[in-house]
Automatic annotation (TrEMBL), chain B:
Record keywords: Oxidoreductase, Thiamine pyrophosphate
Coiled-coil ranges per UniProt: none
Transketolase-like pyrimidine-binding domain boundaries: 4-178
Name recorded for this polypeptide: Alpha-ketoacid dehydrogenase subunit beta
Length: 339, 329
């Protein structure tokens, strides 16, 4: 059993009524879009329609949505192997994301990358990544670029608690600090690196504490509370553009599903997962909205139907999409033909 | 034509390209004041200032990773790792990240970056400051690997690298740095994937690159005294590899020796020999011989080092053996 530092049922830190109702409803819908996508992605994987490994981000929705709402569309983002929520929240079309999972020509990476290697030059998504910790250095470079070119732009790296134990994390935080880079490092601490618990793997109580080693503010947020994530990310973006200084955000979240589809989850009990699911970020926000009188059953059902239709259309598009042209298998290794 | 050292020709290319293109910056350790551990970019820091010549902590993963992120977002980094051995601290970034970024994202991003490092053996550089890793890099799709041997090529090929859209591993042999050679005035580039015949000959082909190119030329001079005419081909780039020029030469000479300083076992010589065997085997009058380092760690003592790394004499010996049509041990 994990000895995490976070209580499963923290009281809501923020009163939704201090935000614009449309804004909060939009946060809810964004999280719901991700959840529905992930559930259908799981279904399509089990049905044998998805090629390659799939790591679901169910439970992480509030982190991606909270950060992305604080960023501007031109900001750069990188993510780890568990990254569908990041790709969706950054604004890529779900049709192309689902098609990528199925290795289709219409996929975000043309079927070359799959779940772990999606990028979208249009949205500023510089890629999710198959290697733990690798997202961190790439965002550091994008932040360098933004500063070099004098752009009002920041770069955010998403990574897990596993990534925070890699050299790339430490090298990047140090580099961003000494070079004054407009970077935001977002650790999605879901308590497990595959099946190794963060309490075992990590020599500090809170990964955010590591920020102080590099003169970077380390902020702990409730990663199951989208408003908490949003406010911290907004502050981090402000620090990035106004002071050109990096921030480390540790979002304490939880992975409601296994590491990847098919994980037997011998490292935790069903009871633990069920207990933690009481803090589901989507239902927590839904209840807050209902309490504020901003959401009724009918509106909720309408929102759900909208989202279900969107994801069903994405699945349909992906299933109908053509496979990549085998003759293009050697394309894009180099800018010109070399072999 | 002017005579310049390999190192100053390289630095001249950096300077000219930085003047031409403001998106080029240099990232390296001890680079801004000292100009790198070999003074390879002396004065560049003074000319271009700390914005464009960025001193880095010793953080190879972050240096190469930052260069990748910058390259994906509109800049052209020159990442200076000082010693080729230091790539090992950034191998994930080199192999899993920069080499794959164009392909895995279906061509959405370019990756125009150059990593420069000093390779090879100098007197007493020892186990962790002497390696030639070009065969490792060549084995990874997505990387351009260059290892020029002349000042003219160093300048022209760096310019090609800085105007292209691919990641380039620029191998700069320590012992070539002070070697002088003619360098054309004005702007010019040297294309990748085109070997150069350094010396024409009729009896045997010596295919080589980097430091073994000048050593092979010395060997050819010695062999000429015995009436053996050796054609010396400098491959110049490892990827793309111009085996065609070697094959054409072998058709004429009927014999091939491949010489590089990197280990013979699993080295580029094996690849070149295999490709020649596959394409022009029928023309060969003798086994293909390879000259390379013996399979040991490079020791610091020069006496021991000389036992392991190849020199002019090894090339001469290999050529004499193929002239007799027999393999040496």
């Amino acid at each position: 059993m994990s000895t995490n530092t976070q209580s499963a049922q923290l009281p809501n830190k923020h009163d939704v009524r201090s935000f614009d109702s449309e804004f909060v409803l939009d946060l809810l819908k964004e999280m719901l879009r991700i959840r529905e996508f992930e559930l259908r992605a799981e279904e399509q994987t089990l049905a044998g329609n998805v090629v390659g490994g799939v790591h679901l981000a169910i439970g992480h929705e509030a982190v991606a949505v909270g950060v992305m709402k604080a960023l501007k569309s031109e900001d750069y983002v990188t993510g780890p192997h568990r990254g569908h929520h990041i790709v969706i929240a950054k604004g890529s079309d779900m049709k192309n994301i689902m098609a990528e999972l199925m290795g289709k020509a219409t996929g975000l990476s043309g079927g070359r990358g799959g779940s772990m290697h999606m990028a979208d030059v249009e949205t500023g998504l510089l890629g999710v990544n198959g290697i733990v910790g690798a997202s961190i250095v790439v965002a550091t470079g994008a932040a360098f670029s933004a500063k070099y070119l004098g752009q009002d732009r920041v770069a955010a790296a998403f990574f897990g608690d596993g990534g925070a134990n890699k050299g790339q994390f430490h090298e990047s935080l140090n580099m961003a600090s000494i070079l004054d880079l407009p970077a935001i490092y977002v650790c999605e601490n879901n308590e497990f690196a595959v099946e190794t618990a963060v309490s075992y793997s990590t020599g500090v109580d809170h990964i955010a504490e590591r920020g102080s080693s590099y003169r970077i503010p380390g902020i702990i947020v409730d990663g199951l509370d989208v408003l908490d994530v949003y406010l911290a990310a907004k502050e981090a973006r402000l620090r990035a553009v106004q002071e050109s200084r990096p921030t480390l955000i540790e979002a304490k979240t939880y992975r409601f599903k296994g590491h990847s589809i098919g994980d037997k989850e011998n490292y935790r009990t069903k009871e633990e997962v069920q207990e933690r699911m009481k803090s589901d970020p989507i239902f927590k926000l839904k209840h807050q909205l209902e309490d504020a009188g901003w959401l009724n059953e009918e509106q909720w059902n309408e929102m759900k139907l909208d989202v279900e239709n969107e994801v069903a259309a994405a699945v349909d598009f992906a299933l109908r999409s053509p496979l990549p042209d085998a003759a293009t298998a050697l394309r894009h290794v180099y800018s010109k033909e070399v072999f | 034509m002017r005579e310049l050292t390999f190192a100053s020709a390289f630095a001249e290319a950096v300077r000219e390209e930085m003047e031409r293109d403001p998106s080029i910056f240099v990232l390296g350790t001890d680079i801004r004041i000292r100009g790198g551990h070999f003074g390879q970019l002396k004065d560049i820091g003074q000319t271009f200032g700390p914005k464009r010549v960025v001193d880095s902590p010793i953080s190879e993963a972050a240096m190469v990773g930052l260069s990748l992120g910058a390259a994906m977002t509109g800049l052209r980094p020159i990442c200076d790792l000082n010693f080729e051995d230091f790539y090992l601290g950034a191998m994930d970034e080199v192999v899993n990240q920069i080499a794959k970024v164009r392909y895995k994202f279906n061509g959405q991003f370019k990756c125009p970056l150059v990593i420069r490092a000093s390779s090879g053996v100098a007197r007493a550089t020892g186990p962790q400051h002497s390696q030639m890793l070009e065969a490792w890099f060549a084995h990874v799709p997505g990387l351009i690997v260059v290892a020029p041997s002349t000042a003219e090529d160093a300048k022209g090929m760096l310019k090609t690298a800085l105007r292209g859209d691919d990641p380039v591993i620029f191998s700069f042999h320590k012992m070539l740095g002070n070697m002088k050679g003619p360098v054309p005035d004005g702007d010019y580039t040297i294309p990748f994937g085109q070997a150069k015949v350094l010396r024409p000959g009729t009896d045997v082909t010596i295919a080589t690159y980097s430091i073994m190119a000048p050593k092979s030329l010395q060997a050819a001079e010695e062999l000429e005294k015995d009436g053996i005419s050796a054609e010396v081909i400098d491959l110049r780039t490892i990827v793309p590899l111009d085996v065609k020029t070697v094959a054409e030469s072998v058709k004429k000479t009927k014999r091939l020796v491949i010489a590089h300083e990197a280990y013979k076992f699993g080295g580029m010589g094996a690849e070149i020999a295999a490709q020649i065997g596959e394409s022009v085997f029928d023309y060969l009058d003798a086994p293909i011989l390879r000259v390379g380092s013996k399979h040991a760690v490079i020791p610091v003592s020069p006496v021991l080092q000389e036992q392991i790394t190849p020199g002019k004499a090894d090339v001469v010996e290999a050529v004499r053996a193929v002239m007799e049509g027999v393999a040496v041990r």
